[in-house]
Design a protein that fits this description.
The protein is α+β, with helices and mostly antiparallel strands. It is built from seven helices and 41 strands. Among the domains are: 40-172, Sandwich (Immunoglobulin-like), CATH 2.60.40; 427-502, no CATH class; 513-592, no CATH class. It is flat.
Amino acid sequence: MPDSCLYRDFFLIVIFFGFVNSKTNENRNCSYYGDVLVWKRQPDVDPITIKWTYGEGICRSIHTCYQTKVGIDELLRPQLIPVTIQKGFQVRFSLEEDWASKYVLVYYHVTDEGFLTCNTSEGDLIKQNITENEAVVPDELLPLGPNYFIATSNSSSLINCEYGLRLKIMVKDQTCTEPGSKLLCSNNGNCVTNSTQTTYMCQCCPGFFGEFCEQFDQCYNNPCLNGGTCDSSNHNETNITCQCLPGFSGQLCEEEVTDTCSLFPCTHNATCIQMEQGNYTCMCPHGYQGPNCQTRMSSCKSKPCVNGICQERQDEDGYNCYCIPGYQGTHCESQVNECESNPCQNKGICEDLLNSFKCHCKLGHEGDRCQHKVDLCNPNPCQNATTCKDLGDAFHCVCKMGFTGQRCEHNINDCASNPCLNGAKCHDQINGYHCNCGELFVGTRCQFAVDLFAPQPIEDHPFPFRDTTHVHHIHSIYILGGTLAGALVIVLIVLGICYCRLHRSYSKIWHRRPRYRRHRDECTKLTLDISSMNNSRPSIDAVWEATLSSYHESDPWPSSNGNSLPASTNVPNGCLNDSDGPNRTNNNASAIMSTPTTNTLHLNM
C-alpha cells in the first residue's frame, strides 16, 4: 500500500509539472490578437519609406485612417494614412514614379496647428539630401509622440496640402521590459500597441498576468479533479490548493474517502456528522457559517451601528460601534447634548448642534459663549433723547419733551385729545400744537369769539393773543365797509345832480311860481288866466288865458259867420256882431296890449 501511494504521488507530480511546463513553453510563442502592431526586437536596417501621392493613400475618417472599427467614426481633414514607428527607426520620403518625373516636392516638419491649417510658416524645412524628390527625416524631427509633416510644390497647384498631402507620424517607445531584465513581457506575451495607446505594452499569453506577464495563474484550466475548486490566492506555480467536494481528498482531490469526518472537514471547532455515501454535515458554532463552518458570520451585516462604523471583534464574537463625533451609545443611537454643561454665559440660550453648540446671546453680550459685554449706548440707539442708559441687557432712552417710544422715535400727537374748539383745525407740533381758528375765534384753543365791533384785543383778556392776524382781518373788513358806504353816498349825490339838471325847468317852476290873475269875459262867459306882465316868460298855466281876440289869427276853429269862437260857444247878445265884432276884438286886444312894450305877452299853447 505505501508503494502504491508513493507511485501515485510521483505520477501526479509529473503530470502537474508537465502541464505547467507545457503551458509555459506554449505561452512564450503565443500569438497576439486585435488590430495591433508588435514591437520588433531589432530595428530595421533600411529606413521606412513613405511615398507621397493621392489615391488610396489618402484617408478622411478615423476608421479609414487608423484601420479600426472601434468607437465613433468622425470625419478628418484629408491626409495620408498615419504611420506608427518605434523609437529609433528612420523615415524616408519619396514620390511615386509617375510623380517623380513631373513634380518637385518640398517637405516641412510643422506644428499640430500648422498641420490643420496647412501653414508652413513655423515649420522646419527637411533637406533633400538623396535625390531631388527624396529626403530622410532627421532623428531630431522624430521625437516621441505625434509628429506632423506637409509637402508643397512651386511647380504645380495640384500639389496642395488641402488635397491631402500631409502626414502624421506617431513615434512610440515600449514598456514591456521588466527592470533588470532584457526579456520582453518575460517571454510570456507579446509587446504590442494600437491606435489608442501611446506606448507598446504587454499582451500576456493565456495563463499569465501582470504588467510584464511575470505571474502564472496555477488555476488556469482548473487542475483539480472530481469537481474540486482551485484556489488562486497563492500565485505560485509549484503550490496549488484544491477545495474538494465531500467524499474526496488529496492535493488534486484525486482520492475518494468513505469516512469523511475522519478528514476533519469542519473548521472552527465545528462538529462533523457523518452521512450516507460519504456525505457529512458540520454543526457550526455561533458566529460561523458555510458547509465547513469556514466563513465567519458578519455581525455588522445588519448595520447595527446607527451613527457610527461597525467593526468585527477578532478574538470573540460580536462587534464594536465607533460613533461619529456628536453621537454616543452602544449603537451610536443617541446624540450628545453639548448644552448639558451650560456653556453659555450671561443668561445666553444654548442650542444643541451635531458635535457642537451655539449660544444665542441676550442684548448686551456677544461671543461664542456670550462672555463679552457690549455697550448698548455706543453707537447711540436713541433718536430724540437727552440720555441713553445701559441697563446691562437692555437700554433706556430718556426722551425729549414731545417724543415717546423705546428709541424716542415717535412724536407725540398733541392733537389726539382734540384740544381745538369751535371746529378749528389742529396742527401737531413738537411738544405742542397750533389751532387754526379761522376769522371768528381766537385763543390757543380758539375758545374766544371775536367781537366784530371791537376788533382790538381787550386789555384784560384772560389769555393773551399769540397771533393778531385775526384782529387785522376784522379791521380790514371795517375799512372795506366804510369805503363801500362812502362810495354809495357819492353815487347817490351824483345821481341826484344828474336828475336835477335833466329836469331844471321843473325845478325852477317849483321854486318861482308866476303870479297871474283870473279874468272873466262877460260876453263869452269864459274864465281866462292872464300871466302877470311882470314876468316875461309864460308858464304852462297861462295856456289859453288870453282873450279870444288874441288867438284870432291862429284860431283852429274858424267860423263861417266870422266868429272866432267855436260854434258851441254861446255869446251873449250885444257882445259880438258883424259890424263891431272885429273892432271889438281889436279894441280888446288893444286894451290888453296897452301894457308897457317891454313886457310882451306870450301865449303858450
